[in-house]
Structures are given as C-alpha cells and as structure tokens.
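User: For my dataset I need records formatted as: sequence, then structure tokens, nothing else. Please produce one.
Assistant:
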Amino acid sequence: MKVVTRSGDVLMAAVLLVTTASAADIKVDLNSEQVGKAPVAFEPMVGTWVVAQDGSDKVIMIDGRPWVASKDNPTKLLLQTARKLYGTTNEELMDNAKQFAYYPVAVFKSVENFTNGTISMKFKTVAGDSDRCSGILFNVKPNGDWLAIRYNDTENNVALWEFHNGIRRNIKFSDRAKPFPLDRSTWHELKMTVDGADFKAWLDGTIAIEYTLGSEPVARKGAPNPDLVPANNPVLRPPVAGRVGLWSKTDSTSYFKDYVVSPK
C-alpha cells in the first residue's frame, strides 16, 4: 500500500505541476473581439490596429496603408495612450514621438511587467512597399523606450532592436549567411525567451538570435555609439522589466494571432 500511495502522490504532484505551469500562460483570446474594431486585448500606441478575419480565425491586423497618408502628421494617439498606461502626459515620451511614429506598436493590456519567461506569437506577412515587418515588443519603459525582436520579409532576417532617446538602433541581426525566406501565404511562429541576461529568439523552431543583455557593443569603426553602451542606456541593461506587445514598421501590413506570454 505504501508503494501505491507514494506512486499516487508522485502522480498527483506531476498533475499539479502541469496545471500550475499551464495556468501561468497568459494567452490572447480573440473569440470575443469584434472584426473591424480596435482590439480590446491590446492598447494601440502607434498605427492602425484592427481585428480582422482570416478564414475561420479572428486575427489582429496592423494596417500599414493609413501610415503612408499620415506619416508626416503629429500623432495624438501616443499622448492618449501614455495617459492610459502611465497616468501622465509623459513629456519624454512625447519628445520621442516623431521617431516613435515610424514604428506601429500595440501594448498587451494583461501584462504590466514582464521580466523572465517566454513570449510567442504567430504572424503572416500581408503587404508593404517600404517594409514588411512583424515583431514582439518587450521591455517597454514609461518614457517610450523599448526592445523588439522582429522578422523582416524584405530582408528575410530576424533582428533585435532597441529604441532609446527617440532613435532605433540594431543590437543584433540573425546570421546573414542563413536567411529565412518565408512563404507569405502561411502562418509562422516567432518566439523569444528571457532568462536574466540571456536572450534567445526562434523562427519556426529554428534558433535565430542568441544575445547577452548588457553586453558591451563592438564597433566596426572607431568608438561604439554611446547609446549602445549599456551604462548609458537603461533599456539595454538586465533585468528586463516592462510592458510587452506587438511591433511593426512604417507601412507593413501583417496578421497576428496566438500571442502567449509565459512568465518564468
């Protein structure tokens, strides 16, 4: 009897562990969203984000067409969203608005602070003349600084970018000798993990980027840009701590679904 009881205890513990792990996942459910409306699950900060229908699935679409017509106009949406998220007009964020407006982003409302864990989502490239980008936004600071991991359909690569002092700069590209040409008619998965300073990203299950947050930059010529030195740039220093969401660029039009945050 003792052996059976112990086995039962082990089995029950395993069931509880799996249940707990599953409960930790924060998934975006689009079933109750209204097609043609802005998504309820995400707070659009820049760009035109709407719920669309793709076959039997409801998806979130970043529509890049309005950006082309309004790219030179100041955005009121950024100010309104700053007030919603941070309860302030956030002057520093507004100072960055001109450059910020090149990058449509939508913040996931259910996660106020992501540090360690996994974020994954599926995307489908639809259109875009200047750009065709789809990405995961993370480490979003109250001043508008952020990190983003993205796939670029025009370059067939994955890249980790940072946004600081109103300017976006690259941290690391995937191997240029191993491009990722993807079929635009199908869905693809972009996944990232953060474990302290350790960052990794995968595209369709293939490792694309490995990086240590807080690493000193390596300049090709002369001294590195001061904004890429972690001592000068809080968004580059571990630990990651901030909001998360979806990211795109200029006139990109993409579909997103199955957005999952799994805190560690």
